[in-house]
Amino acid sequence: MTICLTFHDLTLGYNSHPAVHHLDGSVRKGSLTAVVGANGSGKSTLMKGVAGVLKPMAGTCSVAVGVSIAYLPQQSELDRSFPARVIDLVSLGLWPRRGMFARHRAEDRERLGEALSAVGLEGFDNRPIDTLSGGQLQRALFARVLVQDAELILLDEPFNAIDARTVTDLIRLVKRWHGEERTVMVVVHDLDLVRQHFPEALLLARRPVAWGEAQEALSARNLLRARQFHEAWDEDAPWCVSGHHHDHRYDEHSHDPRDGKRGAA
Amino acid sequence: MSGTPIDWLIAPFTEFVFMQRALAGAVMLSLSACPVGVFLMLRRMSLTGDAMAHAILPGAAAGFLLYGLQIVPMTIGGLIAGMVVALSAGAVARLTVQKEDASMAAFYLISLSLGVLMVSLRGSSVDLMHVLFGTVLALNNDALLLIALSSGLTLVALFAFWRVLVAECLDALFLRSVSKLGSPVHFVFLGLVVVNLVAGFQALGTLLSVGLMILPSAAARFWVNRVESMCLVSISIGLVASVSGLLLSYHASLPSGPAIILSAGAVYVASVLLAPRGVLLSRLPRTAHRTA
């Protein structure tokens, strides 16, 4: 078993309030994990932490050496009024390969074409991005992830406000990545979708509630426990003393590294 | 001078060296300032250009106080003042919750008041007018060389950082997830804005040098829908405005800086009204539409 991503006592948050509190564990290379939880439970924050756009308040989040990351944020800072075509947007995904200076070659253009047809956007190359529908834009962003060709893929709520057919197409892509031994983490709200398509799930309620095989992690009992957390910040909350996480363990699912799945203290 | 229209257009530039110098300066400024303006506009920073134009005043004034009305010290002073304001505003925006519009406004106001204070310490109002409104018709060799240098530097930097600049405008968060270049290149870009404003202020004055940056690119937005073509169209508009402004200034004895910027302004207004993406054509009732 190869580890792709390791959390060690990871706390992420804003203004000294934790949004992800003392997360321990690791993500296996080639695994497909759904990240589940209520609004405000820390899912997007965790994605930002892994992608490296948010620095940890405590602990570490370490990606295995040489693993490239593709990150599709929930709230893209994409400027849709920018005068760009679909092909310009998708070719941003060539960055890891060509960087700032190198010319885009014929093989790159071929990749772009393949990516567009893989997401069902053939013939959209020259469409201005401000004329795309929400679903088409999401398909284009998936095409960019395809072009990035990363080993660790982070998708933050990629299926929001997307119609059923597009969700089916995009799930097929996620499964293709899974089949290619890439490590994929997807923030999802639709629990049926998770049970149907995701082998593993991480249930968050600021702290990790359950993490493991999806059916088990999303048991009625775990879901009920995940609901019992206060979304609002408590301005008078006492300071969290490190090394003293009495209520941050999750009870039933063993994540001892020795059991061969993944570790959690 | 005979009265044919061709003579009216050509003769001023063939007969007078000062007009040739003015034209050379304006052409070089258009080549670099217009594409910089396109990126300013696409980043919704058009007014930042205006703020920066005010911010360079104390530097130019310091050069003027120490060395009199000389182009090199005033340029270096303007560069320093502009860089300090750009870096401070950018740093506050990136390190705190305050957005760049507010921090930029704060720093440029501090800088502008310092500048006015320094000019009033020594100069007469004629000197102040000179700094504020420029003298494109009196560009000497030093001034032309400085404009050529800054224009060349700008074009090289734009070519080199093109992909980062586009990526930062289009999807800043994506760029942050794949590269750490976003922030440094933003500062390089602000530096280019300052360089072009300073290069422009000898010709057009501190207040109006930003005009050649913003007006042509704002007008270009109505004609085309690609960054590359917007840069080319804005350069063309800048060139047309430079030539027509200089001709107006020559034939009607108008101050050249405002004449050039007003010409650009006229192109802008015409573009707003008449261009394919302008007011009139986009409001026309469409009688026909395609089946798919």
From TrEMBL, chain B:
One of the protein's GO biological processes: response to zinc ion
This protein's GO CC annotations: ATP-binding cassette (ABC) transporter complex
Compartments it resides in: Cell membrane; Membrane
UniProt entry keywords in alphabetical sequence: Membrane, Transmembrane, Transmembrane helix, Transport
Ranges annotated as spanning the membrane: 22-42, 51-69, 75-93, 105-123, 143-166, 178-198, 204-224, 231-253, 259-280
Signal peptide (UniProt feature, chain positions): none
InterPro entries per UniProt: ABC_BtuC-like, ABC_TroCD
Membrane topology: Multi-pass membrane protein
Keyword hit for Plastid: no
Keyword Transport part of the UniProt annotation: yes
PANTHER family tied to this protein: ABC-TRANSPORTER METAL-BINDING PROTEIN, IRON TRANSPORT SYSTEM MEMBRANE PROTEIN HI_0360-RELATED
Family: Belongs to the ABC-3 integral membrane protein family.
Record-given protein name: ABC transporter
